[in-house]
Amino acid sequence: MTLYVFYFLSFVAIFSALLVVFSKNPIYSVLYLIVTFFAIAGHYILLNAQFLAVVHVIVYAGAIMVLFLYVIMLLNLNHEDEPHKKNLAKIAAVICGGILMTVLVGTLRGASQAIPRTGGDIGYVKTLGRILFTEFLLPFEISSILLLAAMVGVVMVGKTDTKKTTVDINEPNNQ
Amino acid sequence: MKIPIDYYIWLSAVLFGIGVLGVLYRRNAIIIFACIELMLNAVNLLMVAFSSQLNDSRGQVFVFFIMAVAAAEVAVGLAILVMMYRKTKSVDIDILNRLKG
Predict the structure, then answer these.
(1) How is chain B split into domains, by residue range?
(2) Tens of pLDDT along B7-57?
(3) Which of A151, A162, B36, B56 would you call most buried, defined as having the most Cβ atoms within 10 angstroms of its Cβ?
């Protein structure tokens, strides 16, 4: 039963990931990416990481994908007349991706000898919180600084244009 | 029953390969960002799979940090993209390759 659920979720994830790449319309690409993220969240539940599944859905499907869709709507990109690469570049891209995939699988195949230790409640909030706030406290604080820096940076990047227009309005001939 | 770790390795490798393929294949910068997210998620899935296999919570904590970094990266990247679109009226990666102000 678990194996069938795994096969189904894997099929959904890979199929919609392929559709992300090959959809003409950017809106459809992002929507298929949301489907992929839900399939991966299903995998997390299957792997006994329930809290991580919920966080994954909230952060990715709820925040990051909304940001993507918002930008696409804001820039009015939901049309299909995007120029494509040359056929040679496409074939080279497919060959490169396939070779990388083969190398990854070939490298990681020997990992099946890892001894599976069953049992335990590693996915629960209690366990994760204890480790996060004792052993990984410093990286946790540093990641909060990273988020703050990203927020300030985004505000600065977004503000340059308005600053320039005010300068242009005040002194029209300074260029 | 427990699913063998090999299956997750295959799935993650395929997802990562699809992400690389998308980065190389498309010219739309937003789709390239989406494919980078796909690659990050493939790594996250493999990390959770090994964490479950080895019965160790540290892998899942690493996935938290990857999510935080991914959120910051997407916010900054999309802001840069919006600014580029205001200047060049395009998100085509071949037009953005000059990176001159």
Answers:
(1) 5-88
(2) 888 899 999 999 999 999 888 888 999 999 999 999 999 999 888 888 888
(3) B36
Which of B28, B45, B60 to mutate against chain A (most A CBs within 10 Å)? B60
B57 SS3 class: coil
pLDDT value of position A48: 85
pLDDT tier at A175, thresholds 50, 70, 90: very low
pTM check: above 0.90:
no
Taking contacts as CB-CB distances below 8 angstroms, the residues of chain A near B29 are none
Q: How far apart are CA B45 and CA B48, in angstroms?
A: 5
User: Touching check for B99 and chain A: CB below 8 Å?
Assistant: no
Architecture of the B5-88 domain: Orthogonal Bundle (1.10)
The reported pLDDT for the residue numbered A90 is 86
